[in-house]
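In response to reviewer comment 3 from the previous cycle, which asked for concrete evidence that the modeling workflow produces usable outputs, we include below a single protein chain processed end to end. The sequence was submitted unchanged, and the resulting structure tokens are shown without manual editing.
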Amino acid sequence: MDRLQGMRVFVRVAESGGFAGAARALGMSPAAVTRAVAALETAIGARLFIRTTRSVKLTDAGGRYLEDCRRILSEIAEAEAAAAGSTATPTGVLTLTAPVHFGRLYVLPVVTDYLARHPAVSIRALFLDRIVSMVEEGVDVGVRIGHLADSGLSAIRVGSVRRVVCAAPSYLERHGVPETPRDLREHAVIGTSNSGALPEWRFGLERRIAVAVHSRLTCNTVDAALAAALDGWGIVRLLSYQAAPAVAEGRLRILLSDDEEAPVPIHVVSPEGRRAPAKTRAFVDLAAARLRADPRVNPVG
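The workflow returned the following structure tokens.
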């Protein structure tokens, strides 16, 4: 059995959840599908499926191999299209990741626009407040806020955001306005326990200082911390895009702006860069253009 055809059969079995469904989709007999997968397992020396009388499930090796097969088959399809003189059309399933709040506000509109432009692509969006291992978790593209580690990812900077300290006017009327970062020790502070939270609040550009604050209220989501601040409970530190709507409405007031740290960069990242399949390149290009044009995450001046 040709190795590429074996890959195609394997992918179809994985996506169909069984040999019979794959056989119908491919126009093959169930026995031929079974032989193709068995030959592939023999060739690579690994078991790809766990078979029972009721189900077919990928092994760990099969899960990893599935992503590689999808990528290889996509690249072959693009190479054939290029050789025929045509432009590769984005197809397949695109998996992306972004922080929860940022993903909902800024990435989701890009996703829906992308889907309208590319009807042959489906998207699996993972909005998570943690750093995703893109290769291990099969993610094609991500949006990351913060300074990037040297991970080998291809990255395009699309903007920046600030870390801002803010509170509701009702809180400030009752407890006063902190004039310096160290004044925060005398105030009620709302903390966040997500992966991006810091044990202390840092301030300043050239002359940097760190202030250890005691959070009497710690929330595991930005939305909850923001809601507590809007309710006038205390002072919170957020990224500027998270606070922007409430600041514009006058429901929050930014404090200590002269003491802010340098802005935090935003990047669109992918494991394969320009060697990525058409579905990934098209999303990276669209996301980069949309985010760079958004003054909330890429302020002018």
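The mean pLDDT is 87. We consider this sufficient to address the reviewer's concern, and the full set will be provided in the supplementary archive.
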